[in-house]
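Changelog entry: the BAI1-associated protein 3 record was regenerated in this release. Current contents:
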Amino acid sequence: MTTLLDLKSSVLRQVQRSQSLRSRREAPPTPSSPLTHCPEPLPRRVSEESVEFFERVNAILQKQENMLRAAQAESQRGACTVPPPQEHVDQSFIPDRISRTELDLLYEEVVYTVVNRVGVPQPEHVKSDEELFAYLLKVFDLGEEEHDIILQKVQESKRATFSLRVSVIKAKNLMAKDANGYSDPYCMLGILVGQSPRELEDKKERKFSFRKRKEKLEKRSSTKEVLPARCIQVTEVKPETLNPVWDEHFVFEIEDVHNDLLHLDIWDHDDDVSVAEACKKLNEVSGLRGMGRYFKQIAKSVRANGSASSGSEENADDFLGCINIPLNEVPVAGYDTWFKLEPRSSTSKVQGECHLILKLFTCQRDTDLSRKDSFVSIHKKLLSQIIEYEHAHVKREPYNWNGQVSPAAWTVLTHHAVQTDLSPLQQAIIRWQCYSSHHRTQRVCYSLLLRLMRTIDAEWDPAAVRGDLERQLSDSFRLYTEHCLCLMKNMRQVFPCTSAAAITRYELMLRGIGYIQNMRAFKTVCPLRNELHLDITTAVKKGSAEWYESLIAQYRPEDGTLEDQLKKLVQVVDAVIADVQRAQNIYNKLFYSAVKVDFFSISYRQLEKQVADDVNVAMERVCGTLEQESSRLTQAMGETIFELFMSLKSLKGFREFLPLKDAKMLALTGFHNWFKSSIHKWLQIIHDRSCDRICKAVETDKLEPMQQAKHSSSAVEVTTCFSQVREIWLQLAWPDSAGAFIFITRLTDNFCNEAVCYSEMITRKIERNQLGRDHKSFTVQLCIALNNAEHVRVYLGHLPQDLDWQGVERAMEESCGVDGKEQVYKALNGQLFNMDLDLQREAKRLIALLTDKMLPELRRYIQHISLSPDSINNDDAVSPLMKYLQDTMSILTENLVKENLARVLQSMWELLLRMILDAVAENRGVQVEFYNRFQYTVETLLQFFHAKGEGLLVEDMKSGDYKALDEELRLNKCSSFELIEQYYLEKISLQKTLKHTRFGRISVKCYYDAPEQRLTVEILHAADIIALDANGLSDPFVIVELCPHHLFPLAKSQRTQVKLKTLHPVFDELFYFHVSPEQYRHRYACLTFTVMDYDWLSTNDFAGEAVAPLSDFCWPGRPNASAAGKSVQPVILHLSRSKPSEKPIMRMLDARIGDREAQEFVRRLKEIEKSMEEE
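Regenerated structure tokens:
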């Protein structure tokens, strides 16, 4: 609570003190003001510095916007052929190279693979051994002699033995053999041993079947066609289906891979004996006789509930189709396809297809490397060697290599993988290990690595990856992720936004990291790396911190003078802003879409904290320096501080893109408090430079209107200067509205001072330039000067909105209550009000210059009207004046803005009224025609200045001097009697307004007897009469009479007795007057009660008078005019003592020397006034 009260009192003191920042400009300017002594032109260098100052400040304000545009353009990058920077990594990530001895052993393995190739090559494969050997010599960097030695060794070695892996997957659309519309299919398959070409031709005419009758078997001419018992395999029976699914796998040893043939039968099972058991028995016999007995046994088997005899062969298993596949037709990579079922003979009816997967591989290899190393390890070494060679020979964008190898390389790799019986999963893992390892030294396309990861995931089988392979896969994942995290940490150097290719690579890398952390394989072999996103967060944070430290090392903001240190800090902060913009526009999208990490928040919070720490320390040094008495803020230092503030404000502005919880606790939250004292001094620098700029603008102004405007260049320059200063404040965007009040008060005071000083300088310039100029050119320049001041005044009228005064009021009300709000309102609006008064004063000075120039001509034309003889009509008398005014009006209308035109017209109208009023006052008592002519003149001028609604308002013109002139003219046209009547009307009107005067009061009772036409007046008493004798008392008596005398020529004045030595006399006397209805009906008919002080030795003294209109007593219907009039209440009349000579009517009557009635009336009044003067 104490803190809040202290804050309130402090702010209120500042508010009260701010009201005196700019006092009314009635006092002469002090020499300390930059604008007070501007008749002398500014030094050229000073004015140039002021212009350059605002240009530099404007450049500071534009800098952040330019940086934003540059960042947006950078984010809209297109295709780029410039290679990305090198991806430098830790040496621990680089794998060891293979030795020469190992290369020779590996070469023997490859030659062995080429020599023992089997299978039908694919179109893209290389078929020539010579071409393959030529390629391999390059890959292994061997000579012809070395090759010949190794080739001879391979040819002398034992040839590879092959096996065939057969996978019976499923069949479809088989023929129905059972009564229920289905079949119970099973497969029997085996290898037919090698046959000569002639025998193969015979087989095409007579199909082989495992279920031949014994008689046909015994008739064969050759034992080669007999299938050995050990080569017979059978699948399970799938009951009641035409689309069986077996998914069973068999391996057959092959003696002659070039001539042997795979044969498969599909049968409908109609026997109770297990087919699997039958197959076992078949595999136990040997030779032709044993197989014959087995087939005979199957042929004789019947169903237990069959209707035929036990010897009938019609109940044997039904044939559904067969497949014959020569092994020399199997492709290198094997078969994985559907085979159409074939009949045994032309009369057989079969249908359907069977899905088989066939693959040939070596079961024994006679090489040194295969005897001591695993096939997986050998293939990995081979692929690594080929990758090294292939990548080294990529000419175009080697960093973007997609891993594609030459046909020769692909041929060798495919044959080796097939011969060593590597599964697709094993091959995928080996490719991933080799390419990811190679990538750590020689960059490849990240889409290749992502594709390899997807292949592993698609083929993934945890049971198939055990032991060394699992460990090696885990190591490859670990090394790759650590490699990527290292690149993330150095991403600003490795993947700069300036390189579209680098950003594309970075996006693919992040996708790979995002994919790898969700891979089944990764989760299986790296169970402890289940929080990879935390590692990414740590890498981003550490990378940002290290990058900032590199910035500090680059700019070294701790070196040099304090100003140099701040300039370097500005460069650091701007570099951070650019980095944050890239984080927001580019990097954050990549991170969030790929790995669901908020890169922007992590990087921004880290950099923001480091910037805040460094700037805070620097600004503490600045504040400490400025607090020293001998130190002042230089302009260069002020600009640097302002630039630093704006940069920090821009950096802080990025907080709006943070999650709400992260935006609350930031190190830059209150950074503006570090700049409070500096900003005060900075505003003074701006004020000084603005003053210089305004002086220069006035000095160079030729007072010529700008294009499509009625003001000159200096007004434009002043408002432009104000706009720039206002923009500086708006860009500062001081976050503490209550604290901003002092700054806004200062700014408002500066604006108002500069505007008033500008107006004064323009006025002085006009005053200096008026000598020697013709009326028109001077009037035009004066109009422009007026417009300049109005242009500036209108601009400053928007200050409450431009500087958000209402926001400051609300903030002060929240912090200091209603008193704070009212003080702010009074302080700010008081400044603006005073400025407006000062500008109006200067405008009046300028208008006075104009009217002073017009004064001789106007006097001449008014005198012309005054002296014109009665024979000239009014139009001719007034026309010279109107012609002059019309010409002047054309100039004014053309060159003045509407507001100034109204001001000038009002001044001209008031001037003319005063001039006519003076002319009339000088010519009292002349002929009525004189006053009629001036009445006509006034009406003509009224219409002229009204201009049919385009000029002054009639209501505004008919006030002030106009009323006085109109009354003067009206009265001067009246007769003496009419003037006297008007005199009494005014007195009656005045009497009604009197309340408790110091001259006392009189109590009377008046009533009228209509039949007798008699007015009875009772003077009862008086009170508080003024003391006119030396003893402090008076000897009062009352004179009562009917006025005016020309209306009551027969009525005599009457008087009461004298009451000696009293101020409260009691008279109780009756007086009677004859009053006819024709007399009392006039509004000016009245009774006058004159109280006099009786003197024995000198003239009686005037003590006061009062009047009462007869209409109050005599009109029919009044209580006083009835029979009960005597009982009415007395009337109290307050006395007055005004000097008659002060009334215009007296002066008019006094001027009528030849009028007896007028002179007599004036004489009587003068006697009263004389007695008042003697008293």
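The chain has 39 helices and 16 strands.
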